[in-house]
């Protein structure tokens, strides 16, 4: 059978009534921007794109040159297409309404232009994460508050991982599908449809250096994982930590696992490290559509009512039964 390119896949989805023309266009534009980012990431030192930009983002984190460049690529590509009412990014303090000089559409796009960017300089996989929401009726100049919709309201979510191959992972609520970039042809080709995450796992991912700051339920849960075969879980677990969320989620979609970034006492002002709107929610949608789960440890991620564009949340995601196990430790602790 002839391989299916993303464009054809989206046109067929439109013909079947699963997406409308505007959403198809939006996804085509995001995919094109990701190809441009992929080229820049792939050039590495030859493209003069490595290293710090010398600036900080709204959250006080040092920006890499590629953070800034990826943000510009996504902004520029999406601004004039006519399918969006507004954009929001990890790299911008506030939402950006589409200027009135361009046609406006009904969607809102949120993105983390380059997640895991602390890994760029060491040539480890990084990625772009995005989430699509509907612009509330009657709103033509969307502001931050119009983006504050729960993850269950997402119409589409995806990420692109820039690794040995560049892979775009997509869901619009009808399963999770993977497209690999054919660098010679310049198009994304469907390489796995209806991805299913194994329900059980023997692999976990957490930054162990934060152990002394973890709250009791996480301490107890990880203690029991580490106890292995002779502990209460009765099996040995393996550990991975890439420090690039997109790569960790990609591993989990491929072979299962649980990834965690819990809240801790290191900086009590921060309820976790990862951001709800453009990291946890899109990954939650992608995982649920693949039979996995995404939780705050105390409830379904997609049901969290957001309070801020850059809000942080504790994250437990991956194989369904293991995420439920992590939640059980939280509920037991809360009951005691
Ligand atoms: P980064 O800051 O490099 O963009 O989004 C935050 C994130 O990366 C995740 O991709 C990654 O999982 C995590 O931070 C890494 O955190 P540690 O520095 O604690 O390892």
Dominant shape: globular
Structural class comes to: alpha+beta
* Unreliable parts: none
Q: What number is the mean pLDDT? A: 94
Q: What is the element string, with H for helices and E for strands?
A: HHEEHEEEEHEEEEEHEHEEHEEEH
Number of helical segments?
Answer: 8
Alpha carbon gyration radius: 19 Å
Topology, number of strands? 17
Strands across the major sheet, in which order?
A: 4-3-5-6-7-8-9-10
Which ligands occur here?
2,6-di-O-phosphono-beta-D-fructofuranose
State which percent range the strand residues make up.
15-25%
Topology:
Blueprint: H1 6-15, H2 21-43, E1 52-56, E2 62-64, H3 65-79, E3 84-89, E4 96-97, E5 107-115, E6 126-134, H4 144-147, E7 156-162, E8 166-171, E9 177-182, E10 187-192, E11 203-205, H5 216-227, E12 238-239, H6 245-255, E13 258-261, E14 274-275, H7 276-289, E15 293-295, E16 312-313, E17 315-318, H8 320-335
Parallel strand pairs: 3-5, 11-12, 11-13
Antiparallel strand pairs: 1-2, 3-4, 5-6, 6-7, 7-8, 8-9, 9-10, 13-17, 14-16, 15-17
Helix pairs in contact: 1-2, 2-3, 5-8
The structure holds 2,6-di-O-phosphono-beta-D-fructofuranose.
2,6-di-O-phosphono-beta-D-fructofuranose binds at residues 115-118, 207, 243-245, 273-274, 279.
Q: What does it look like?
A:
It is a single chain. This protein is globular. 31% of the residues lie in helices and 24% in strands. Strand 7 (156-162) and strand 8 form a beta hairpin. It has 336 residues and is α+β, with helices and mostly antiparallel strands. The relative contact order is 0.13. The protein is built from eight helices and 17 strands. The mean pLDDT is 94. The strands form four sheets. It has an eight-stranded mixed sheet, with helices on both faces. Strands 12-11-13-17-15 form a five-stranded mixed sheet, sandwiched between helices. It binds 2,6-di-O-phosphono-beta-D-fructofuranose. 2,6-di-O-phosphono-beta-D-fructofuranose binds at residues 115-118, 207, 243-245, 273-274, 279.
């Amino acid at each position: 059978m002839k391989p299916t390119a993303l464009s054809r896949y989206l046109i067929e989805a439109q013909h079947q009534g699963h997406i409308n023309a505007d959403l198809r266009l939006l996804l085509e534009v995001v995919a094109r921007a990701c190809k441009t980012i992929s080229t820049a990431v792939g050039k590495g030192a030859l493209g003069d794109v490595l290293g710090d930009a010398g600036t900080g983002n709204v959250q006080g984190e040092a920006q890499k040159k590629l953070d800034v460049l990826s943000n510009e690529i996504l902004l520029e590509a999406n601004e004039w297409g006519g399918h969006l009412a507004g954009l929001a990014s990890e790299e911008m303090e506030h939402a950006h309404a589409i200027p009135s000089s361009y046609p406006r559409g009904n969607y809102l796009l949120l993105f983390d232009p380059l997640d895991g960017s602390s890994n760029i300089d060491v040539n480890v996989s990084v990625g772009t994460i995005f989430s699509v929401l509907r612009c509330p009726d009657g709103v033509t100049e969307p502001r931050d508050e119009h983006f504050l919709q729960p993850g269950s309201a997402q119409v589409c979510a995806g990420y692109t991982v820039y690794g040995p191959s560049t892979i775009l992972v997509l869901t619009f609520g009808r399963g999770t599908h993977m497209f690999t970039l054919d660098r010679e042809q310049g198009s994304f080709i469907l390489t796995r449809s209806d991805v299913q995450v194994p329900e059980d796992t023997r692999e976990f991912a957490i930054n162990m250096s934060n152990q002394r700051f973890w709250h009791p339920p996480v301490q107890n849960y990880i203690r029991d994982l580490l106890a292995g075969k002779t502990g209460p879980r009765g099996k040995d677990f393996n550990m991975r930590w890439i420090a690039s969320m997109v790569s960790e989620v990609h591993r989990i979609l491929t072979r299962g696992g649980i990834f965690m970034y819990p809240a801790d006492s290191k900086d009590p002002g921060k309820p976790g490290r990862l951001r709800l709107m453009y990291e946890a929610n899109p990954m939650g949608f992608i995982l649920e559509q693949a039979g996995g789960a995404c939780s705050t440890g105390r409830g379904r991620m997609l049901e969290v009512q957001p309070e801020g564009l850059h809000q942080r949340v504790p994250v437990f995601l991956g194989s369904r039964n293991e995420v439920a196990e992590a939640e059980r430790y939280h509920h037991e602790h809360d009951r005691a």
